[in-house]
Design brief:
7% of the residues lie in helices and 67% in strands.
Length: 261
């Protein structure tokens, strides 16, 4: 009898675990070459306090179409040679190539904390960024969160070449979602639940070039693996209509110019 009861308990737990397993999404994979061109301004208004502003153009679809234009303003404060923090606001104007129209803009607020240490001629830094993005279009929060929260962790090593204007660097970044919606079979019958997962792995290399005291250039290349989920529900019934894991491999080439006072 004990063996039968034990077997029944194990079977019940197994069935319960199977029933609670997440939905299995369909998968799609794409590859894209992208480009970025940016102009920025930096001004140290008082000791250790810097104001920044910039405009960036992004291209996608193998550099054939405009992806977005974004404008940013921010401030950064250096506490000491090991630690600084800051915040910035970004206005994102996305372009829909299919309909040849600018999409509804998004508003993004970033809060950054960075620690750094110099080892010989190498500066090692770790930046943690809390990213909050507000959408202006109407969305189902079971499909897309508004605002969307993301934690971006970046490790960078920059090398200062002796008697040279060039400073090469390498970096690695992880983007972790903090409030992505969990898929349910019917959102009208289920409570909203959130999920977190790594949405982007990024490897990057680049080189900064000091033209003069006031002018800087930055050339870089990023390789990204982006993962996202397209969740689609029937609006009138709330039942799950589609669930796709979208995987994208991106090659991004960029150049940035900065005028620094």
């Amino acid at each position: 009898m004990r063996k039968i009861l034990l077997l029944a308990m194990l079977l019940s737990l197994t069935l319960g675990a199977t029933a609670q397993e997440p939905f299995t999404p369909a998968r799609s994979t794409t590859n894209d070459f992208r480009g970025r061109v940016e102009g920025a301004f930096e001004w140290e208004v008082v000791d250790d306090l810097t104001l920044e502003a910039g405009v960036q153009l992004r291209l996608n679809n193998d550099l054939a179409t405009v992806d977005r234009i974004q404008t940013s303003v921010g401030a950064n404060y250096e506490v000491n040679k090991y630690f600084d923090f800051g915040a910035d606001y970004v206005l994102i104007n996305g372009y829909e190539a299919d309909v040849k129209a600018w999409d509804k803009p998004r508003h993004r607020v970033n809060v950054n904390v960075r620690g750094k240490v110099k080892v010989g001629r190498v500066v090692l830094s770790l930046r943690e960024r809390l990213q909050t993005t507000f959408r202006t279009d109407s969305v189902n929060r079971y499909e897309k969160m508004n605002p969307e929260l993301m934690l971006r962790s970046r490790l960078m090593a920059e090398y200062s070449i002796r008697h040279s204007r060039w400073s090469p660097y390498a970096m690695f970044e992880l983007n972790n979602t903090l409030n992505a919606p969990k898929v349910v079979d019917n959102y009208k019958k289920a409570a909203l639940r959130t999920d977190n997962y790594i949405a982007r792995y990024r490897l990057g290399v680049g080189a900064k070039f000091r033209i003069s005291r006031y002018h800087r250039l930055d050339f870089y290349y990023y390789f990204d693996y982006d993962r996202g989920y397209d969740i689609d529900y029937k609006g009138n019934k709330g039942t799950l209509k589609g669930y796709v894991q979208e995987n994208e491999f991106r090659h991004t080439f960029g150049i940035s110019y900065k005028f620094k006072l």
